[in-house]
Amino acid sequence: MADDLREKNKEAVEKQKVTAAKKLKQAETTEQIYAAKPDDLRSQLSNKNEEYVFKLNKYLLDDGFKEDEAKEAIDKMMPEIVDNQIKGVPANQLYGPVTKKAGEIVHPAKKVKKTPFWASSVDNSLLFFALFGLLYGVVAFTNKNSSTSNQTGIITLIILSGMWGTLLTWFNIQMKKPKKERPGWGITIGYLAVGLMLMFVFLGAMTFVPATINPSLNGIGYFIVAVVVYGIRFGFRRYMGIHDRGFF
């Protein structure tokens, strides 16, 4: 029994050594392939891959590439083609049809620019400013009670928009993360609840701020401000290259 166990352990160790040796050899081979000259790698192509490269070169030339441009584009692919060829993966399986790969080379996909947090916050804050401006305009037309005027002052509008824009930008980013990286719902709801409480406290405190510091506009004034700020947001999005829709 003990002899059998020792024999099995010995076989397991030998298998591990063989596996490690294979991985080391594969790594060395891959390193040599990526260090080799493209013309040398072309001579190692299988008939199937050689035909793929020939057709790809033809498609690139037909799409307006010059000879040296087509060769340069294909040369960059050679290490990957040969490396996968050794593993039994032909180029048509690696890249798909020749027409598809040629299209990707001729019309490379543009990398999506990631919008920084501060820019998204400004973008959403400007949007909320415009929305609140419209709301304040409606309130100014319908509310005859002057005791709440400081709650709808211009300073209130600016700070409230910034708070909403920043808080909901953070929330939106959390929701776009992979499920494993998202904070728990309890934490997320807690942050939102605290943020809402701070906003209500802020609105209550603004009733004690003198109108000279936090002046209110009439209904038309708020509508004009809303339109102007939305135009500023439009220009800001174009300048920063922001394409996502945000919340609206």
TrEMBL record:
Pfam families: DUF1129. Keywords: Membrane, Transmembrane, Transmembrane helix. The chain crosses the membrane at residues 117-141, 153-173, 185-213, 219-236. SUPFAM superfamilies: MFS general substrate transporter. The keyword Zinc does not apply. The keyword Acyltransferase does not apply. This is Uncharacterized protein. It comes from Companilactobacillus nodensis DSM 19682 = JCM 14932 = NBRC 107160.
